[in-house]
Amino acid sequence: MSTASLKEVVTKIDKKVVQLPVFQRNFVWDGGKVQRLIESLYKGYPTGSFLMWTVYKRNKEINFLVDGQQRLTAIMWALYQKKPHFKTGRELNFELMFNPVSQKFSRSINTNTENFDYWISVPDFFKKGMDPYLDKFKKFEEIEIVDIVKSLEKLRKIEDYNYHIQEIPEETDIKTAVKIFNLVNSEGKSLNRGELAYASLTVIWPEFKEEFDNFKKEISEKYKYNFSVYFYMRLLAVINGYSALINQDFHNQSQDEIKKGWAKLKKILPIICKLFMKELKIFKVSEFQSQNPIYIIARYLALQSSPKFPNGQKEINMWIWWYLRAIQHQRYSGSGGDAKIDEDVKVVNKESDPIGRLVANIKESKGELDLTPDEVMGAKVSISNNVFNIYNLMLRRNGAIDWLNGTAFFPPGNSSDIDNTNDHHIFPQARIQEVQEALQDTYRYDALPNRAVVDAETNKVFGKKLPIEYMPDIASKFPSALEEQFIPLDPKYYQTSKFNEFMRNRSVDIADGINNFIKSFSENSDISSYTFDFENFPPEDDQLEYKTTFLVHYEEDKEKGRTKGQESKDVRKSVYRTLTAFANTDGGTLIIGYNETDKLVGVEFDIENGVNKQAKDKQEKYLNTLTEAIKSNVIREDNDDNGVSTPRLIKDPKSGKSIIFISVSPIRTFPPVTLNSKILVRESSMNQEKSGAAKTTWVNKRFK
């Protein structure tokens, strides 16, 4: 423990030697509390100590103020009318005054104040010193100047007040520092995992706070999506290949890893924002029934050679289809939600065509995909409810129209009118209660089949009316307005006596409508064939490589003794080398059946010449041989997951030729993947072997 005068501490803040860790809360004190602190300092009362945490980054000392922000911000304003460079939160707009005769402080005086002439500005006093004020008080004959000197000297000595400086040990990690902060800060709330992660990253990469704040503001202003810190940190974790739980591995990242992941996130998130705004008319964060599926999509984009959907709109539609099924079945809700995110991220890591497997995961836990009428009947009418959320999105997508004037109340590309919509009781509550006893087994009046989305003004007009009093007129003028919300046009259903029948029929119609809406995104889309654009093979790079074959030579080469169609261990080995290098670096995609000279060769030549001609299903035999060969040759020393997906055969419908698609996710934990005990990495679009000192340096850097 050390001590420092108040003036010394303030000087360090002015010079930005003292910083505020990001886990600190905003300034919250009001003027009264500020005044009471200065009064305590004037009287020499104890006002606590400061808690500092000193860390060293890139040979630079950083002093973090863990406890004491509120007091120091208050002191700097009251004494000097300055704001610390780290100031956030409540604004202060008063000038502290002092009466050296009465020795009282005040935040508001005017010409009507008793002894107005005796009051002085505290910030002016600390700026100008004592002399100007001594001259002032010498003019008052009734005042003993000696008493004024004592009061002003006592005021000046506030700067000399010695604070005890407690130090958190230098070796303390960010998690422990935050725990200490939560213990000593009675006015703060404990940080969640996202806020802790944010704090951790700002220590590893000091410029991250500014980077983060600027990008978060950009997303909020441009797309109106005000995502939380927690969302951003989970997104960064998943993009970088870590658990959505934001575990210790995330906190142990290097600055380079964080920068790379953040650069990807800055490219990926705008794509995702545009996707949901365009395809589903989601215009603000609260309209996502769940944000968790976003992590899965983001990880998929992060694994592409560039952050985009390789197969354009067709592929986008498939992801929207999966998203709607995921929220319909609340895939990531409840206590096991985070584990399911991680489970589905692993699917994306391993599968070049993940949609099929992701949907299978939903089916395995929920059974049939289609929505049932009973689920519609049980749905709460809230944007946070899974069924009502999809119902609402369906209306937006389909361009639902208003019942009064026939205009769209979800205008294309316009979010401004969405808050103007209400959920309307078709049969008003009071009118149903009037005949409650006469309706046996009456369905809930507030269930979804008795609700419709309408303009706010429309809801006011029809609010307390029975449907028989206004529905026939709407059915005549704007029949589509009712049909698109699955309301029958036959007026017999508008009678109170038909309430139960209306509810039963409409619950069936809504369920069918939502199911058809979701299926519309997957129409004419074969889940196993959409993942590659056969018209556009991009050039090889650090995360993409082509191989013509896996089993046999494709070209004749007499000098090397190669015969076209001849089996070769060297051909196989080249495949293993690439997969190993991808796993040990940033992951990648290997495609067999294409080369940049002969273009789309297809694996049919490889199958025909490399597989036993007596095999019943040559294609299946080929895939099994390839899969087992990868498992046996691309290995980790612990025989754990090697990061390589199951090979997938994808056929080009135009040419009839097929390619093999293999994706590889990067290995994050020790040991690395080896090939014949050798470590290979991907550098400059080549597979490079690490040995000797270079191997040791690489292992230490990658696995710390």
How would you portray this structure in words?
It is a single chain. The chain has 704 residues and is α+β, with helices and mostly antiparallel strands. The protein is built from 27 helices and 20 strands. The strands form seven sheets. Strands 1-8-3-4-2 form a five-stranded mixed sheet. A four-stranded mixed sheet has the order 11-12-17-16, covered by helices on one side. Strands 6-5-7 form a three-stranded antiparallel sheet. A hairpin with a 3-residue loop joins β13 and β14. The longest helix is centred in the middle third of the chain and has 26 residues, at 255-280. The two termini are 33 Å apart.
Low-confidence stretches: 186-190, 524-531
Please report which band the strand proportion falls in: under 5%, 5-15%, 15-25%, 25-35%, 35-45% or over 45%. Answer: 5-15%
How many domain units? 4
- Count of helical regions: 27
List the helices and strands and how they pair.
Elements: E1 2-5, H1 6-14, E2 18-19, H2 31-43, E3 50-57, E4 60-67, H3 69-80, E5 97-99, E6 104-106, E7 120-121, H4 122-128, H5 131-137, H6 145-156, E8 162-168, H7 174-184, H8 193-204, H9 208-223, H10 229-239, H11 248-251, H12 255-280, H13 292-302, H14 312-328, H15 337-350, H16 355-366, H17 373-377, H18 386-398, E9 421-425, H19 429-434, E10 451-455, H20 456-462, H21 471-477, H22 479-483, H23 499-519, E11 544-547, H24 569-584, E12 588-592, E13 594-595, E14 599-600, H25 604-610, H26 618-633, E15 635-636, E16 648-651, E17 658-664, E18 673-674, E19 679-683, E20 686-690, H27 692-703
Parallel strand pairs: 2-4, 3-8, 11-12
Antiparallel strand pairs: 1-8, 3-4, 5-6, 5-7, 9-10, 12-17, 13-14, 15-18, 16-17, 19-20
